[in-house]
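Please predict the structure of the following assembly.
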Amino acid sequence: MSQARTLTFSIFRYDPQESGDKPKMVTYSLTEAPGMTVFIALNQLRETQDPSLQFDFVCRAGICGSCAMVINGFPTLACRTLTANYPDGHIKLMPLPGFDLIGDLSVNTGKFMRELSERLSLWLHPNSADNDIHRIEAPMSPEEATKLYELERCVECGVCVSACATKQMRDTFVGAVGMMKIARFELDSRDTRTADDFYHVIGNQDGVFGCMTLLGCQDTCPKDLPHMQQIAYLRRKMASV
Amino acid sequence: MAANSLQTKVDRAVNTDKGFAHPLWAARADKLQSLSGVLLGLFLVMHLHFESSILFGKEAFYQVAQFLEGGIFSETGHGYPLVTKIFSCFMLLILLIHAVFALRRFPTQLGQWRALRNQMRFLPHEDTKIWFWQMITGFLLFFLVPTHLFTMITNPEIGPHLSAERVYHLNAWALYILLLPVVAVHAVFGLYRVVVKWGLVEQRFAMLKFAKVLLVYLMVLGVASLLTYIFIGRSLALPVVPYVSML
Amino acid sequence: MKIIYTDTLVVGAGLAGLRVAIASKERGLDTLVLSLVPAKRSHSVAAQGGMQASLANTIKGEGDDEDIHFQDTVKGSDWGCDQDVARMFAHCAPKAVRELAQWGVPWTRITKGDRQVIVNAEKVTITEAEAAHGLINARDFGGTKKWRTCYTADGAGHSLLYAVDNKAISLGIPVHERMEALSLIHDGERCHGVIARCLITGELRAYIAKSTTIATGGYGRIYSVSTNAVICEGIGQALALDTGVATLGNMEAVQFHPTAIVPVGILTTEGCRGDGGVLRDKDGYRFMPDYEPEKKELASRDVVSRRMTEHMRKGKGVNSPYGPHLWLDITLLGQKHIDTNLREVKEICENFLGIDPVKDWIPVRPTQHYSMGGIRTKANGESPQLSGLFSVGEAACWDMHGFNRLGGNSLAETVVGGMIIGKYVADFGEQTSLVVDTDLIAQFGKQLQTEVDQLIEGEGTEDPFKLKASMQKIMMDYVGIFRNGPELEVAVNQLTELLERSKNLGLKCKKRHANPELVEALRVKRMLKVAVTVACGALARTESRGAHSREDFPQRNDQDWLNRTLTSWPDANSLRPEMSYEALDVMRMELPPGYRGYGVDNAIAHPDTQKRQQQVEAILAELGDDADRYAKQAALMPFELPEEYQPRNQRFTDTVAKTDAESGEK
């Protein structure tokens, strides 16, 4: 193995709760180790150089969606980003735009997602008559189940929201995450909502007709969800209501 | 109690505005914007092709112009410039519809503009950049296209010599040299976006590549035609005599 | 200090916690959930395999029922579990799966007709029944007699957590995110709630409730390498320990998984080896056949983990900056197989290792995976010592796993335990009234405030990050897969030394609000107590049972150790917990201790085992051949359940038989 590189991290630092603190970029150096991810690097920086450094990780396996940040201009999950992906060894880290900043690289995506969920009623609205858990479940076509799961893989990381210029310009826009979830429930045969019901929620400027098809969502989604296709589907569906 | 407040939130999200703010207009506006855009875009592609017939000589252009002005319906075979006039008015109307609905997309506040610029600086992204330029070109077209159309309404004569006179001697080249790239960029990427937006084509990157090729092609076509008119214009003595068919 | 009152307080917003909250809210109780992270980021989301429930829809699950699920679970636990609880669990698992289908989980469904599957690395064609088309499918998992694990593609935990959290949102259950519970308010007999600290503002807040449910997950992160999320730090168990009254059960029961990638400890599925992958050492040598000539890489999970560790101890591990590891070689399976059947493994390798498993070997080593131990509860989920304190899921020692957990039973425990215990929590909320003792609240609030002040303003010199790393290393080195007396002694001594040093923690960052170093300091003191508890339990238990493997005591010893370790920490200043043991009553067992089915049967029998076995046979003989399985079960070991969950589970085969019978009559 060749000599280990020295990585240069340029990290956005700002504590909004600290009076007088101003946003700034701070540079740190770290010796790269084989297989190093941004998760490992940030923890090393916190443990050895600056214990006040704020960032969020939970599963550190690309599953929970906690750690999205902007890495060299591209919003993605930090836990599964290898430092080896950056040949010049310069890594610039910024918090996801479009969310409340807690501090440094930590943003409040949880609050955003919960509010979105309440605003758009993002849960299954089943037929309440059909709820005997002791009896055999209602059958569902295997293809439908597969399709539902494909749309359900969203991890609410917030990358699509941060990558969407429409969302950045208009705060009330629901973004790709909201529309992907609507599309998921719209597809679900167990959901009793009609196209009209969905139109009430997203058939407006803050919903599917506010989307300007900039496709930041499609190009950055860490789970490769078919945002472009699903938003187009919803647009056609809603336009025909 | 918490469930009640949740219901209120849900209710609040449901739009109950009237008139143009009525939610149904959101769908109509999006459809009309796309539809008018497609009409304008396709018209532009045809327009550039018809007018580039000058590359095949004055006679070719003359025949095309006469045909489009409804020459087959006249005994002399000459077209009616009135057709151009009416058609220009119609396009102006389409343009107005397109502009009205497209205006919704413009950042109306300084904050929005700043957010957009920040976004492009910190998260560079190709389609966002393309849209940005579409917005800029759209803004310019708001002034350039009516200028062009008013000329055509007030002075609708089209022909190898008359058009060349307009381009060269009446200095319309200055307008066209601006208008051509602006309108080509706006139309080509507009068509691309409409296709992607409504999910008409799944192969987006192939589409984008095609759009770029189309843009280059239209530019070459446009520039070549424009240069031809300039050359013709320079060769014409004033006052310009309309071209007479050799056939 | 702000005080928030509610009926039901749940600490932890993973599947188990949310399910309890839903049960309580549905009964009209005011319910509130605290969570370190947004609910949907909880570690439940990482479960990929699925959950066990004896639906018996698929042809490979034909004939499955609660009895077989129960037996698998008890055997898997190496007879260390509470059989009543295992019964409650097995009975309610199908109900939970069906309920989740109504809440939106897109369970993978059965397609009628022929399909090719791989069994024992060979292609086999199975034929699903026409009538089973569209019903919930199940896959094969280790240690189960039938295909019983219901799943949604490769993201069962994700689908379940999203469906359950969505349900909670639809009910308007508030989740206070980024709130860390740091002490339980109690009077020695009754639990009144928690004092929590906001991770954003640093504010301390009292949450006062009729019942407090701890659902904070496991304590995997007391080990340096764990497949667990970084939030699984055992703070829930520490909360109970800190009361000095509540007990933890079987804390030494910790499961290791053989093949997690190095360095990040993310799991690669057992399917890699199931399909024919092999393990290699630093010389590229396939070593497993030397240790386990018969089953090789496919010996049971704990055995493979032990052999790998043994081999690395011989210096055969590959050295890396992250410590020694071994190689998992699946290159021999070929591109097509990996792309189609092991897609997930391929993605993990690409994203986290930057390698292509079609061409490269995967660096792996045994890694901490699951905590069987936790807050000891009765079958209703309540602490036997502190009334009003409940616990559920991995955080608890409800005890359906004993000393080893079956794959697919952890995800199942969260929702099944949640639905059962949720009912009892709701009952408790209806039957009791809120006790508000402002002096007591102030006392606990002040105690935590003093602790924070001490850390911020004190003269301490110990670095919390370093203490934590030392603890994790000790746990990994001496309380890992293999354990022995001398090493465990070292562990206990070194850990207590660290615990002593943790009284002298000092911070470089003096912020009172969002301060990661303060968070770490508050946690490391608590984690150390949990670590000491695990090490002490392991040292005291001089036998090998399930995942607890003592090199110096390799036999399972039912005679002396058919019991549950109980630990409490009555003296806050002491460096050691107090331990006692709760015997498992063989004479009440439906399934008396027997041979688990792995390795040599060298268990030392319990004196009652034979007696109970004869009794069981006598009871069954008396019932006669006409008795159905429900009657037999009821005669052997009656168990309690909330009334709503008592009805029998209908199965697809029941309806087919019934329709046949009906049409026959016509």
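The longest helix of chain B spans residues 204-235. Chain B is about 75% helix and 0% strand.
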